[in-house]
Amino acid sequence: MLHRRVLAAILVFVLCFSSPQAVLSQSGGPMYIVQEGDTLYSIAIRFGTTVDDILSLNPQVEPSLLYPGMQIIIPGFEGVEGALVTTSVLAGQTLEVLEKVYASPREDIIRLNRILNPERLYIGQDLVLAEGEQTSSLQAFIFPVSETLLNTAAQQALNPWVLASYLDTPHLWVTPGKIGHIPAEESSLYPDPISNIMVNPTAVYQGRTLEVQVHASTGIRVSGALGDKVLTFVEYEEGGYIALQGIDAMAEPGLETLRVQLFTKDDGIPFYGFQQPIRIRNAGYGSDPVLTVPPESVDPVTTQAEADAVAEAVEAVSTEKRWGVVFAFPSPYTEAFPAVFGSRRNYNDLGYNSYHTGLDLFGNRDTQVTAPADGTVVMVDTLPARGQAIYIDHGWGVYSGYGHLSQVFVAEGEEVTTGQVIAMVGSTGRVTGPHLHWEIVVGGIPVDPLEWVERVFPAGD
Ligand SMILES: [Zn+2]
Description:
This protein is 18% helix and 31% strand. The chain is α+β, with helices and mostly antiparallel strands. The chain folds into 4 domains: 49 residues, LysM domain (Membrane-bound Lytic Murein Transglycosylase D, Chain A, Roll), CATH 3.10.350.10; 46 residues, Roll (Membrane-bound Lytic Murein Transglycosylase D, Chain A); 84 residues, Sandwich (Immunoglobulin-like); 158 residues, Glucose Permease (Domain IIA) (Distorted Sandwich). The protein is globular, with a radius of gyration of 28 Å. Zinc ion binds next to loops.
């Protein structure tokens, strides 16, 4: 009862104070299908309109009786027609591709999503599209880079002039990357022989791992980069390529450019590529209290030499994956941690200009350190900050590191297996007490080891 009275009051308010005339004069508009969990308010926010204007344009809607599947015309988009669908931007998708796949004019996509820069659609970006009538059983076709129209026509078993008409060109030459519609049974975003390109996750946190997979029906070569970091792809199954890259814990949150380029295997001719922004998310790392240590241990000359030595040890990308499903913890103390990964560090009050590159685990001189996965020992050394330290290569550019050790039982070049005792916890190097400093480095960048005891690589396996 109370609800009805409140509603009546709202309706009176709407009639008195809004100007429904302007909205009611709108003819048509895109149709939104109400989803589970929607409210009129959430719908209004999403499309930059108001509950009042939605109600004015949809007099049949009773706000208290909104149900999934209900159809609502969204005000403010006169001229945009079709059912609204939501999608996330996939790797390699540009406005041009979306326009073809959804038969939706790009101006409509830009208006509906209030896109300011159409060249910067980022991977994982949520979009609303007004899906138009599909013209027929046509699929979007991307004209391959470094291909001639004659060659492509031959590969597709098409008359070149017919292909030219699909690509809307009056000539037998065409700009690489141009998109047209060709008749086909199954639609694909990518040119032959690529079946899929996957970027996981589509928005990645600081201090976590980005995974890029490319799948093709025949052998190809893949290269890529994330910002100025070169991605190294390994073929991990027939036609399946993967690159793993850690995201710096202090990377600037925002958009970073992902580039992927595909080449023919034998002659190395580039046939497809894209560059597209991907979102780096702020992980919200905290700050440790100011730490007081001997001044010589934070001397930039010393710390840079140590950083360089570690960087060199963890640089190579070996092609064999040496871990099982996930990594194991390297010590029995897995519940609480004296220091977590990523927290901002300030030594001797010189400023918060560094971060904790690992996860610290409790332990003392009689605590064993065990290998978290199979691998090859690539470095055993005594370093100013990390003290006695070990680094192990686990393949695919993934390394684990151990610091402040009191005893080391392995040598450089030695193969280790999961659970093998490799060292004892200690307090060597720059420490305030005994503990194990555990690092995971991916593509040369330290990431949070806790990601690696739970996340499975490659995704989908
Ligand atoms: Zn540490």
